[in-house]
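Case 423 in the screening queue. Each case pairs one protein sequence with one candidate compound; here the compound is iron/sulfur cluster. For every case the pipeline is the same: read the inputs, emit a complex structure as tokens, and attach any notable structural observations.

Predict complex for case 423.
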Amino acid sequence: MSINLKEPVLLKRIGRLKNPASVEEYINLGGFEGVRKAIEMGRERILEEVDIANLRGRGGAAYPAGRKWKHLYGVDETPKYIVCNADEGEPGTFKDKMLLGQDPLSIIEGMLIAGYLFESREGFIYVRGEYRAIQKLFQEAIDNAQAAGYLGVNIMGIDGFDYTITIVSGAGAYVCGENSALLNSVEGKTGRPRVKPPHLAEVGLYLKPTLVNNVESFACITAILNIGGKAFLDLGAADGGGTKLVSVSGHAKNRGVFEVPLGTPFHDILYSDEYGGGTSTGRPIKFLHLGGQSGPLAFPEQLDGLYSYQGLWDKDLAVGSGAVVVMDDSVSVVEYSKKVMEFFVHEACGKCPPCRIGNVRIVELLENFVKGAAKEGDIERLDSMLTHVIGLSACGLGKASGVAVQSAIKYRRAEFEAGIKRA
Ligand SMILES: Cc1cc2nc3c(=O)[nH]c(=O)nc-3n(C[C@H](O)[C@H](O)[C@H](O)COP(=O)(O)O)c2cc1C
Ligand code: SF4
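Case 423 output:
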């Protein structure tokens, strides 16, 4: 795994801790300074700093953390729960794994800052089931933090500052990364998404006000309180502050997690030796898949801008989870599209018909394109079915399932036309 930033902010301790769960080592490298400063500045200022930082949620939806935090702060009901989403189910996304496994206390610190701000007594971290070894390490970090007075009762000597963190293991369902399905799963129920509204800030875990943020988002919170909201904002772009962890994979020459200032030219991420370094095969990049399976495909003509939230939206693209899967010109866009839809069929929870049934029909149609047996009008039929599934599905899984294939049709229609059987 490579890191490329003169002074990394999120990855600054990666590779420098002999035991990533050690509180002593963490403190020696600046750990727990963020929570200390947060307590000194007081609750209203914490909210202001998060707002000024213009941190967009790093789990994929890019929702401004400042807005989410202010909403929850304004809710009177108690208790409030803090939940860290460490499900990391998006294919091609493996940046949370690096933080969880190599700097777990930075996430615990971010959750602790939230616990202090919202006067919450209980936090939960929902960790992808496949990260078994990391769960063990994270538990060790929790135990060490508790022994050192950073979790438990009267934290840091403050009367009544009581807060615990409990690990809950996922069981391999992609849909459980969706925040309301995740809360159901934490409660021991089937991991199916809830109908929203109500907002989770009002009716969340055990029907109580709840904050759900991604692992990287909590690591950003620790950094924001450490360096200040304005300094964090200035690291990135006006439409989204800070640095972003980008997971580069596929045919990229340099695969790994890179900490990239938001607003970096996209070309640099793909081609510079510090980042992706072109392709491992020496063949040209044909397309990318951005932000996991839920994101759009990106083609070379869309890549001349900046890697920032607005920069990508302007090009019909999205940062999403920060996944950048590189595909060279040996890969068929149509076959790739079918694989994407097979993933969504496999992962659908089955609650609503558009996603449960519609995506099965879409895979059947795509199979015809792959075999060169599609009929005249099938591209329009495919596009219309995708629009219906996106528009009518009950949760984010279905709503995002057709995004990649719609972008493929829009930008590489000729490849689909080649799959039509002409008389
Ligand atoms: C099907 C689906 C899967 C998701 N998987 C994840 C995930 O693995 N990790 C994550 O942080 N967010 C995931 N999300 C997004 C969460 O619902 C939610 O937006 C996020 O946890 C909020 O945190 P953030 O604002 O810090 O990004 C998923 C959403 C959907 C619809
Ligand atoms: S869109 Fe898919 S995953 Fe979401 S509720 Fe409907 S069937 Fe379940």
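Case 423 observations:
- The chain has a mean pLDDT of 97.
- The first helix runs from residue 23 to 28.
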